[in-house]
């Protein structure tokens, strides 16, 4: 997600209840959308439609290098030599010259669960910018449509100035723009001020026109979470059928039972989903875990504080209820992917009522949190977040199973960086527990 600047000719003011009708969240959302359209054309990080410029077809096409990288060998000299060749093929700015491999530093970024991510720099050559190398995970092809993802990134970057520039692709990954920033931590996203910044950034992303990013027709468009569950069930079943998977895990996950429970949940959702409130359909990120949230080291002078937060990694982005995206983020409060047991969620860390209210205030652009009627506004959104919460557990449970394929096939039981099957079990148990809490299951 990129930065937004309000017009200098019209100073911004806090929205009041004369701006926001307390009985409908969608009215607040429409006011936010109108405000976001009026942005400064001078800001390089604004949410805006970029003016169409004449570009050659060569500049408009994404370059591709026919080569593959093995992330396990990133410390080897051959890896760096191959990377420099790739940079020259893709014409990555300032990386196409005669750079010696011994000047290149490749640093692996921990916490990325789908891909292997690296920061690549030349500390002694100050004119060479740091770049980000992303090597796709071996099972990610079953989870993500890479052409769709690249199309989304291109539209967000070129028309909304959201997300990183993609310099080019190779057979199992891509090279991206690097933001001079620090990645948030589990403690950071719990900080009240930072949580408000995240809420404001999410609201800005949710203002993106779905029809511009998603090329499918309105009639064919379905919620991303529903589409993913339907698409991931078959590859997940294939993983559970592998003979090396422990029987207790197969029985614990029980996808036939899951399918029945999911169908019952979706029927229940259709009766409580409020598309004029938190259930309104938006362009959602769907994976705002702390590792996908960056804090810029330098922010343009005069911008509000929340503009220093940048959201990256749009692999799972797509149309979804706003409440789903918020619920998914709240579940990420319970995760610590750098702990001794990164696959286990600590549900006691789920944001309490006050912490959720703090987030909602920023998301809705409402500063007068104690004004009459505001609580009704928050209650409507919070109720929808609760309804859509199990869907997050369901999707990531299937994701964990599919991601586990390589480990299960190799019968890897020790020295795992992340236990995907145990993670899937954790999310599946939470899915069923929440269905019972909502009264969907008895």
TrEMBL record:
Top-level taxonomic group: Eukaryota
Protein name, UniProt field: Choline kinase
Pfam families: Choline_kinase
One Gene Ontology CC term in the entry: cytoplasm
One Gene Ontology biological process: phosphatidylethanolamine biosynthetic process
GO MF annotations, alphabetized: choline kinase activity; ethanolamine kinase activity
Naturally occurring in which organism (per UniProt): Amanita muscaria (strain Koide BX008)
Record-stated family: Belongs to the choline/ethanolamine kinase family.
Family matches, as SUPFAM superfamilies: Protein kinase-like (PK-like)
Transmembrane feature ranges: none
